[in-house]
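dumping this here so i dont lose it
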């Protein structure tokens, strides 16, 4: 170790050929270790990516298919809602027309009822009752 440390402290120009070879061997060994670590990291990363693709892509495909089915269902629901809204509009128009038609008839009926002379009507009913009472007795309806 001391020899390696002493070599590392010298300038490259001052080193002997043997010392330079030793330094190169040491650096080569360090580079091999770094290359092996890099290779292991790349292998782990590649395996992780492959596993992710194998596991995730089918789930993504199912999710996309489900989303497509959902989109079709939503489109059908929107179509049904549009039809229902049109039916509601038609029904509301029909109800409005019926109310308007009936309000005119109701207004006419109220006008006619307000023109009735109830005193005269009551007198006529009483007179009719007086006339019908003896006939009812004649036919056995009165007691």
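and the seq i came up w/
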């Amino acid at each position: 170790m001391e020899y390696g440390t002493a070599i590392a402290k010298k300038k490259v120009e001052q080193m002997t050929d043997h010392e330079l070879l030793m330094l190169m061997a040491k650096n080569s060994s360090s580079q091999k270790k770094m290359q092996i670590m890099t290779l292991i990291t790349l292998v782990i990363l590649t395996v992780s990516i492959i596993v992710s693709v194998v596991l995730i892509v089918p789930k993504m495909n199912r999710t996309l298919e489900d989303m497509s089915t959902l989109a079709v269902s939503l489109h059908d629901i929107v179509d049904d809602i549009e039809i229902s809204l049109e039916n509601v509009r038609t029904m509301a128009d029909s109800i409005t027309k019926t109310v308007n038609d009936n309000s005119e008839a109701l207004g006419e009926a109220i006008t006619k009822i307000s023109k009735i002379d109830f005193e005269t009507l009551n007198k006529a009913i009483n007179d009719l009752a007086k006339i019908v009472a003896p006939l009812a007795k004649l036919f056995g309806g009165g007691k």
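The chain has one domain: 2-138.
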